[in-house]
Amino acid sequence: MGELTIGAFARASRLSPKALRLYDELGLLTPARVDGTTGYRYYVEAQLPRARLVAWLRRVGMPLARIGEVCDLYETDPPAAGLVIGAYWARVETETAARRDLVTFLVDQLSGKPAGKGVDEMSDMRMRYAAGTDRGMVRPVNQDTAYAGARLLAVADGFGADGARASGAAVDALVALEESVRGADVLNGLADAVDRVNRGNREGSSGDSGTTLTAMLWTGSRLALVHVGDTRAYLLRGGEVSRITHDHTLVQSMIDAGSLSAEEATSHPQRALLLRALDGSADHARPDLRLHDVVPGDRYLLCSDGLFTVVGPDDIRHVLRTAAEPADAVSELIALALAGGGPDNVACAVADAVTV
């Protein structure tokens, strides 16, 4: 098989010579041969499928590190590579929707509508709320923290030797925002609070300690959501329950990639392995930040994994649909977790958007 110069290979693969040199330096697309005297790169036709895949994935915006993983998988298992690409794009669409919400919010702010759409509607709404935690039947201490207030709902699940302190500090940092941050500052306020908590964990905790965090802060007719880890937020609207957070765990990434089913994830030996948490590491602490419209009749549940790994989705759905008050829902959900053996701490916070 004849060799192709870098120019000929660039034309055939639709990648520029500059891009090919970069991909060589990154180990993403190594030439078949490099002339020892001139430094010229030469390729062979068998490399074209990988090069074209790189070009396509760059066009959809996939990061280079992820492209390398997909290309390596493509060479051994093309269907599996296809599943990874599909999972990546599903995540892009989710993040795009979140950015769309944020753009709408910012446009409203700059147009002189500080609460966004539904300002009059929100003035006639208030939140009924309740929160509770339990040590469970096995753990020696309770490292979960839950909070419910007029504007804030928060659940944190601490881990490690200083887990209780870490989860409490995370929620306390957000409680401080309940009266002080409104309007356009709410997302920045949440992001800054999370950053302070993470830096505090880096400076004040033992190396194995940290916390997950899921919280909602109401502003106008919307709520701002901040999420790191595997605590979760659910929404009951119109009788239907949906999860509005995405777990930052190894098993969830495997589900996204199509290499693990949701049913298999429940018994996976690494199901508790977190990919993001407030553990003092800048790499692991990047939160999801989103905005959601609030509709009268909405019921929101935030909970730790001590609930949803023990209590099945049908039971959670039933309680959210039938409990008369948020306090009733919290009590019933914690009771179900304990009835299931209570192997972990459990925390719940529930809020209803009601008209007055």
Core attributes:
single chain; 356 residues; alpha+beta; five-stranded antiparallel β-sheet; 13 helices; 43% helix
Describe this structure in words.
The chain is α+β, with helices and mostly antiparallel strands and 356 residues long. It has helices at 6-13, 17-25, 48-59, 64-76, 78-110, 119-123, 163-175, 186-204, 250-257, 262-265, 305-308, 313-322, 326-339, and strands at residues 3-5, 33-34, 41-44, 125-134, 144-148, 152-159, 210-219, 222-228, 232-237, 240-243, 288-293, 299-303, 346-355. The strands form 3 sheets. It has a 5-stranded antiparallel beta sheet with strand order 4-13-12-9-10. The model is unreliable at 115-122 (pLDDT under 50).
Brief account:
By secondary structure, the chain is of the alpha+beta class. It is built from 13 helices and 13 strands.
User: What distance lies between the first and last C-alpha atoms, to the nearest angstrom?
Assistant: 78 Å
Residue share in β-strands: 15-25%
The strand line-up of the biggest sheet is 4-13-12-9-10
Helix-strand pattern: EHHEEHHHHEEEHHEEEEHHEEHHHE
What summary fits the major beta sheet?
5 strands, antiparallel
What does the secondary structure layout of this molecule look like, with pairings?
Layout: E1 3-5, H1 6-13, H2 17-25, E2 33-34, E3 41-44, H3 48-59, H4 64-76, H5 78-110, H6 119-123, E4 125-134, E5 144-148, E6 152-159, H7 163-175, H8 186-204, E7 210-219, E8 222-228, E9 232-237, E10 240-243, H9 250-257, H10 262-265, E11 288-293, E12 299-303, H11 305-308, H12 313-322, H13 326-339, E13 346-355
Antiparallel strand pairs: 1-3, 2-3, 4-13, 5-6, 6-7, 7-8, 8-11, 9-10, 9-12, 12-13
Helix pairs in contact: 3-4, 4-5, 7-8, 12-13
